[in-house]
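The instructor's notes for this session suggest beginning with a concrete chain rather than abstract definitions. Hand out the sequence below and ask the class to guess, before any prediction is shown, which regions might be ordered.
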Amino acid sequence: MFHYRISGLSVASELTLPGAIAATPDAVPDVTVRRVEEIVPPKTAQTLGPNWSVEGDKFFLHVPRVANFLITAGRDIAMQLEAGMSESDAVVFLLGTAFGVLLYQRGRIVLHASAVQVGGSAVLFCGKSGAGKSTMAAALNKRGYAHVTDDVCCIEFDAEGRPMVLSDGRMLKLWLDAVDEIELCDRKGAAVRSMIDKFYVEPEVPLRLPSLPIAAIYALREQRAPLKAGIEQPNLLDAAQILRRGLYRARLMATMGLSANFLSRVMEVQRAASVYYLTRPFNMAAMPDVCAGLEAHWRSLGLIEAGG
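After discussion, reveal the predicted structure:
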């Protein structure tokens, strides 16, 4: 068995999980991952979609030409590979969509976001696919800000009702040009999927804490007319929309009958953390200035000390 810690959970897996960082095993893991020869879709599904079905605490997911997954009760993921598909290519979907479903089954809030540690808190970067969430987190990690999570950001509430981001044991996933520009070649691992120039990259500064309170959430936007580069705070309605759009695989969450409760919890996240737009040029040459602008903003918020 291979052992990992993903989104705050101990994971025992029969297969290696490229992109996950090995961890000390727990006596009783929170989650098990198995490879099986066949997965039969639920026959009495309460909810059906184009490539998924839900029956009680079981969620069946079919990724065409890749694999079938059965996620059960927030505790177990079974994977059946399609003929000719490599295990490493299928693991991308296991650690992404399948694990996201598992987290929803456990009642966690999941945002499509990356995060770093700033002072004693977490700062999140959200946005649609390709917005640069991982690149932003990697550039800040290179500047010494501890890596908290990449792409799948799991949130739970502590005993005082504060939303806390759970430390994640997944590596960064970066395109080759970002790896080169941020000078992370010495930490570059295997390709995320065959035939594409995206790679797993081990963080230089990992988080040493199990969780952090959320201080700020930035929605990434590309600088293009009429948008100007910089940081601005949206009104409350727009901030709420940013968080709702940022829910990870929101459509799948809705199929599980969780939308109403989860949206109320998202509003609690909004009350606890400030939401901002971060508008920036989409070129790596501008990244040092973007990072410096963020640090100036964090000093104004009291997240880091003046001169820090």
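Then share the key points. The first strand starts at residue 2 and ends at 6. Residues 228 and 279 are 7 Å apart (CA to CA).
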